Amino acid sequence: MTGPKPNNAVQRLFLSLLPARWGESLYRSSQDWKITCPSCSYSVSVWDAGGIRWGAKSRRKRTFGKCPSCGEKVWFGYEDWPDR
Ligand SMILES: [Zn+2]
Questions:
Q1: Spatial CA neighbour of 44 closest among 30, 34, 54
Q2: Considering the domain boundaries, does residue 3 fall inside one?
Q3: Is residue 53 part of a domain?
Q4: Ligand 1 is a single-atom ion; what residues have CB below 5 A from it?
Q5: Residue 40 alpha carbon to ligand 1 centre in Å
């Protein structure tokens, strides 16, 4: 059983501000989403990518960034990650 571990200052801030179970919820929710590189199909959870996603309401379709796998600058697509 491991608790949420922040990857960066933003995540650390959220975890320190929120009550523990909200932080847990935020962490879980961010782990349930992945971003996928359209170039090489590399996938990583939103949390592990340093992002935050809480709930699916404000659905942002894509985010631009450099793929850590193939090094291409690409638009990552957000996807549900139900089969983990
Ligand atoms: Zn890639």
A1: 34
A2: no
A3: yes
A4: 37, 39-40, 42, 67, 69-70
A5: 4
Examine residue 48 and state whether it is found in any structural domain, yes or no.
Answer: yes
**Into how many domains does the chain fold?**
1
Q: What is the pLDDT of residues 26-77, one digit of tens each?
A: 999 999 889 999 999 999 999 998 988 876 555 567 889 999 999 999 999 8
pLDDT in tens, 65-77: 999 999 999 999 8
- Report how far residue 5's alpha carbon sits from residue 24's, in angstroms, rounded to the nearest whole number: 10
How far is residue 32's CA from residue 84's CA, in Å, rounded to a whole number? 8
What's the 63 CA to ligand 1 centre distance in angstroms? 13
Residue 45 lies in a domain: yes
